[in-house]
Amino acid sequence: MSQATGTEIVTELVHQLGFEDILDDVLATTDVTTVMPYASALFSRRAPEDRPKVIPDGAQNFAFLGRLTELPGDVVFTVEYSIHEAMHAVYTFFGFGRPISPIYQGLHDPKVGFKALQADLQVGARVFSKGLGSLTLTVR
């Protein structure tokens, strides 16, 4: 697949789905990128306007989906991110009155902080017990 062009990929997909009758229209209106960005691009420092909104201002019948779109308050490298994007687009365009499932905010969950502290103290205790140094806990 890495050697295939975007046209070849779309042609194969259209044939697999049985839509040969619209192949010419699809090829004339579709652009497929065949090279993925580096995985670290998802975590690169950026400004909010670096990524398109899922539903761009003024869009009435299209949305951007994928991990390189902007979905405020969510984390890009999760399955939930992709699901939230699709839900946002579908619920908006079809006027569903239901709320989109909330985004888990683990950073603000005291249980998560406590587990992180426990893990940190366990690692520190192992280092201390092996005589590799002393455990110093500084609270600021």
Give keywords:
mainly alpha, 3 domains, 140 residues, extended, single chain
Q: Helices and strands in order, then pairings?
A:
Blueprint: H1 6-17, H2 23-29, H3 79-94, H4 110-129
Structural summary, described in words:
This protein is mainly alpha-helical and 140 residues long. The protein folds into three domains: 1-35, no CATH class; 46-104, no CATH class; 105-140. Helices cover 39% and strands 0% of the residues. The chain has four helices and no strands. The longest helix is centred in the C-terminal third of the chain and has 20 residues, at 110-129. The chain is extended, with a radius of gyration of 23 Å.
* Gap from first CA to last CA: 53 Å
Q: Beta-sheet strand percentage?
A: under 5%
Q: Which residues sit in consecutive blocks of at least 5 with pLDDT less than 50?
A: none
Average pLDDT, rounded to a whole number, is 79
The biggest beta sheet reads:
none
Estimated structural class: mainly alpha
Number of domains: 3
What is the succession of H and E elements?
Answer: HHHH
